[in-house]
Amino acid sequence: MPTISLSPRLAEEYCHLFDTCVINAGRMAEVEGILAKIEQHRRRYDAVAEALSMPWYVIAVIHSLESSLSFARHLHNGDPLDARTVRVPAGRPKTGSPPFTWEESAIDALKYHELDAWQDWSLPGLLYKLEEYNGWGYRLYHPHILSPYLWSCSNHYQRGKYLADGVWSETAVSRQTGAAVLLKALAEKGAVRFSGVAAADPAVSAKPFLVYSMNEWSAYAQELQIFLNKFPGNSVKVDGFPGNETSEAFRRVTGFYLKGDPRAQA
Fold first, then answer.
1. Phi and psi at residue 103, in whole multiples of 5°?
2. Do 74 and 80 contact (CB within 8 A), yes or no?
3. Which position among 1, 73, 132, 250 has the lowest Cβ density within 10 Å, counted as fewest Cβ atoms?
4. For the chain, give me the number of helices (H) and strands (E)?
5. Structure pTM?
6. What is the C-alpha to C-alpha distance for residues 107 and 122, in angstroms, rounded to an integer?
7. Tell me: the pLDDT tens digits for 137-162?
8. Using CA atoms, how far apart are residues 25 and 224, in angstroms rounded to an integer?
9. Which class for 51: exposed (0-12), middle (13-18), buried (19 or more C-beta within 10 A)?
């Protein structure tokens, strides 16, 4: 399967989706139950995280998605620990003899996905690796559906899922709680904190979220264009590029051009 790179545009998309993620109210008790179990076993996640120099909460949400927080199943895909994995990836771990400990299997799974070598644990960096862990099928072949592996149980997902490897259903609904949704819940509780694309650079972080541009796409520009079209006389193309048309519509509504528009200096 082709791979996807973590481009600035994709990083911005992840941040925008996370910022606007709302957990389904009817599922909050379920989400709280998962978080309670994660906290109960935090020591085990910390031990694996320390061994691989990665965040504990990434391991925890993968554990929830792949094996429903069972410590009797492989982190690779939820197969039982009393044998090597059968489903994809099959035959893991390649070394050692079953039954495997959960920690042995978890370390093998995370190394198999090269998470031990990943350095970017900013919010977009970790969402990218979580989506990659499950596979790029949604983004490549069903881009109208955001991956339920990340967004199930939130306003960003309604229906559509793979029933098995390569078996797609447009109407099936994932009943799991997505990894990004669990991370959002952890963040709302103050249990974790994420850095953004450039949070370590105050000069960059202080820049406006949206500036005039004819060729740089922005998720925030799309939101602004939708908003501007609610006003009489505006009919802006919703394409995510905050150029002349968007800036002019913004001026009609606010009296000002977008920051960076040459006309603002005239």
1. -65, -40
2. yes
3. 1
4. 12, 2
5. 0.76
6. 21
7. 999 999 999 999 999 999 999 999 99
8. 27
9. middle
